[in-house]
């Protein structure tokens, strides 16, 4: 009964807030957040949940029962009928299986039921998700387990409970479990280091602010293109006369129809607690961006996945299809998901933000230099986290950073690191110390934001108080890059602490001296990863090779490092992934790659045989008939009149021939790839032997598009797809 009164007043306030529509007032109204927990839970239950969130400890069954009862009361009061464990299988998107609260008692009486058992753990029998062999469908089953650190929310008429998805044998079958482990590792390592500077720090959390780019296409037109529907991108299509060369779309006036979609979307997002903030047109026609206020990384990842899902639903209502593919159209920019990352303490300090005192700046430098060092040591791993069949089109195509990892820090900080590099080793004289603190560390301005140049070509850029990872693709689940980034930084900080402690304990150095000493070594040994120039240039590729930086251009190449001895040791030491888990993940990623290229190959083959070749021949026949007719009328004098037609007939013939030849070769290459048993070899075969034909076939097809009668052309053209009003 207690719940009824709360729910009633909550509902009343919701109605009035919805009418008012002010965003700050409707923010999170459909989330079982802090405010709701305080209202609905006893003090004891509330404290338990908060402790569990803070420490990662298990919530006992009695408390879980209380929480479930409260969630149910709240959800039902808002018209919710079902609940679901919401999880992230290795497909890259999210999954859900709805169950009704409705249940029957043995006496046939109906009631609404939802207990701690259902909240804490479920067995979705989701045996068809990729598991990389961890889970044979007939043995180990998988279960989902409640993640209390990401609050439950109501979407539509369903209560969604964020969960991890693991096998009964304990291995993670999803992207969230390893992320949570990586976040725990970075918390432990960063807290220990942050304590050097402030004893009061007891927790560090990673923050993530993603920027989601996407395309909108009219739904009906999108459905007219088999390639968009099957592969998420156009596999053929000549670029329109006007693309993005006039830069008239970027930050331009948002078209009315799009604005109305965005408003609806934002309202939905705000209700379920996604703090959306920024919206604007992007560089390419029909390309847009949405960015929220940054949040704790696990929550931010959940919110990004949720956003993508909500976006598709709202787009559908507005008769749009949203394209998350990294390169839906050739000849214009593709889409990314810049991932801004930092570390924040429970005392409210951003560890990558310079402060007002030399001590605060030394803390900043410590985290700054350690991050750079981690990226240098584990550059290939970080690169692997952004690899996918679709993102291969974007990285290194002079619109997004190259596959080479480097770190941009700007002139000012480069100068600071250069000076630090010159500091003498071992004990420092009082004068040296003062000099260092006042003239080097003390010189770092508190606000760097305006001084850090926005070098758009860098894959890992420092932007004043955070690093921005720019290689992440628009479709990618940020859990992957965030798992790797936080794991490598955790490992680096742990090593750093060990080294500093040895200098303090064994060499009698003061703590700040020891910190300077170790940082100086790191600055020296990670120098090659720093690059402030043009990442798109050919010179950089050559220079990077001289510096022995990795340049893994394709997905199969990029994924190789996952199972190297060093990687396996890293994931084990940081307790992020076991050997079985990492091997399984690599397999799943490779298979995903193979399937996507395979599907693209099939779609392209069908488009050529069933759409393009018949259309080209139809038009060619029209021309042939025309030539024959003219010849009949004019006899020998026909030649000057039919020269043009004959030339086109020949051109069409040549393109059709080439298309047929290349399509057949592509199909042959696919057959050869398909019989390979080894997944890695198969992925390389698809990458090296099948994919190259796509470009050749497309080239011919796009030429035909320019020749053939517009009325006959069977595919909706770029100019029709790309200029939504
Ligand atoms: P842009 O990179 O587009 O010029 P900003 O630099 O203002 O824009 O910020 C980009 C994104 O960085 C925003 O979405 C914001 O949420 C995120 N961000 C800002 N501070 C942090 C932080 N400390 N941790 C993580 N993300 C952050
Ligand atoms: Mg940005």
Q: Can you give a write-up of this model?
A:
This protein has 725 residues and is of the alpha+beta class. Helices cover 51% and strands 12% of the residues. It is built from 24 helices and 17 strands. Strands 9, 10, 11, 12, 13, 14, 15, 16 and 17 form a nine-stranded mixed β-sheet that branches. Strands 1, 2, 5, 6, 7 and 8 form a six-stranded mixed β-sheet that branches. The chain is globular and about 105 Å long. The structure holds adenosine-5'-diphosphate and magnesium ion. Residues 207-209, 211, 291, 293-294, 340-342, 350, 463, 465-466 line the site of adenosine-5'-diphosphate (ADP).
Query: Structural class from helices and strands?
Result: alpha+beta
Helix fraction?
40-55%
Large-scale geometry: globular
User: If you compute it from the alpha carbons, what radius of gyration comes out, rounded to the nearest whole angstrom?
Assistant: 29 Å
How confident overall, as mean pLDDT?
91
Question: How many runs of DSSP E, i.e. beta strands?
Answer: 17
Low-confidence stretches: none
């Amino acid at each position: 009964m207690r719940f009824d009164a709360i729910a009633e007043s909550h509902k009343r306030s919701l109605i009035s807030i919805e009418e008012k529509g002010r965003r700050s007032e409707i923010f999170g109204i459909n989330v079982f957040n802090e405010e709701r927990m305080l209202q609905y839970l006893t003090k004891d239950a509330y404290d338990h949940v908060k402790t569990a969130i803070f420490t990662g400890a298990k919530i006992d069954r009695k408390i879980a029962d209380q929480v479930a009862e409260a969630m149910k009361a709240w959800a039902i009061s808002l018209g919710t009928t079902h609940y679901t464990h919401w999880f992230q299988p290795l497909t890259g998107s999210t999954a859900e299986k709805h169950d009704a609260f409705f249940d029957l008692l043995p006496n046939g009486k109906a009631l609404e039921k939802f207990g701690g058992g259902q909240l804490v753990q479920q067995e979705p029998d989701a045996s068809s998700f990729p598991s990389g062999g961890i889970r044979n469908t007939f043995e180990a089953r998988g279960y989902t387990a409640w993640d209390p650190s990401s609050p439950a929310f109501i979407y539509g008429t369903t209560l969604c409970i964020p969960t991890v998805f693991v096998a009964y044998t304990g291995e993670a079958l999803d992207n969230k479990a390893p992320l949570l482990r990586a976040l725990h590792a970075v918390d432990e390592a960063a807290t220990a280091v942050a304590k050097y500077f402030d004893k009061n720090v007891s927790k560090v959390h990673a923050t993530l602010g993603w920027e989601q780019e996407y395309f909108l296409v009219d739904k009906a037109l999108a459905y007219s293109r088999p390639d968009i529907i099957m592969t998420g991108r156009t596999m053929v299509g000549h670029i329109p006369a006007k693309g993005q060369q006039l830069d008239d779309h970027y930050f331009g006036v948002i078209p009315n129809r799009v604005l109305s979609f965005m408003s609806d979307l934002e309202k939905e997002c705000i209700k379920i607690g996604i703090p959306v903030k920024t919206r604007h047109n992007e560089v390419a026609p029909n390309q847009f961006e949405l960015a929220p206020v940054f949040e704790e990384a696990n929550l931010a990842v959940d919110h990004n996945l949720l956003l993508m899902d909500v976006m598709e639903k709202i787009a559908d209502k507005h008769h749009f299809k949203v394209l998350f593919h990294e390169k839906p159209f050739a000849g214009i920019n593709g889409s990314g998901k810049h991932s801004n990352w930092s570390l924040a303490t429970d005392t409210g300090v951003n560890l990558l933000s310079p402060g007002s005192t030399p001590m605060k700046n030394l803390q900043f430098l410590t985290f700054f230099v350690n991050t750079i060092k981690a990226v240098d040591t584990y550059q290939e791993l970080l690169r692997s986290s952004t690899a996918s069949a679709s993102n291969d089109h974007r990285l290194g195509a002079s619109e997004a950073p190259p596959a080479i990892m480097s770190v941009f820090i700007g002139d000012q900080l480069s100068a600071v690191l250069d000076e630090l590099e010159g500091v003498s080793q071992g004990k420092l004289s009082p004068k040296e110390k003062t000099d260092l603190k006042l003239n080097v560390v003390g010189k770092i301005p508190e606000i760097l934001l305006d001084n850090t140049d926005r070098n758009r070509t860098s894959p890992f850029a420092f932007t004043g108080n955070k690093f921005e990872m720019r290689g992440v693709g628009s479709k990618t689940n940020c859990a992957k890059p965030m798992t790797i980034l936080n794991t490598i930084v955790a490992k680096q900080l742990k090593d750093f602490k060990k080294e500093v402690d040895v200098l303090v304990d064994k060499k009698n150095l003061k703590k700040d001296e020891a910190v300077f000493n170790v940082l100086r070594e790191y600055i020296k040994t990670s120098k090659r990863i720093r690059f402030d120039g043009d990442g798109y240039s050919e010179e950089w590729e050559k220079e990077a090779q001289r510096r022995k930086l990795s340049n893994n251009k394709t997905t199969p190449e990029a994924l190789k490092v996952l199972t190297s001895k060093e990687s396996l040791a890293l994931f084990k030491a940081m307790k992020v992934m076991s050997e079985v888990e990492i091997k399984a993940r690599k397999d799943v990623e490779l298979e995903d790659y193979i399937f996507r290229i395979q599907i693209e190959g099939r779609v392209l083959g069908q488009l050529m045989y069933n759409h393009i070749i018949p259309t080209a021949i139809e038009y060619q026949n029209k021309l042939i008939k025309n030539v024959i007719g003219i010849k009949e009328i004019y006899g020998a004098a026909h030649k000057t009149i039919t020269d043009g037609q004959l030339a086109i007939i020949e051109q069409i013939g040549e393109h059709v021939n080439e298309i047929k030849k290349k399509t057949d070769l592509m199909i042959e290459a696919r057959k050869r790839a398909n019989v390979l048993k080894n997944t890695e070899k198969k992925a390389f075969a698809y990458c090296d032997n099948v994919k190259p034909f796509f470009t050749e076939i497309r080239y011919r097809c796009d030429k035909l598009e320019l020749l053939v009668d517009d009325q006959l052309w069977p595919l909706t053209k770029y100019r029709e797809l790309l200029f939504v009003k």
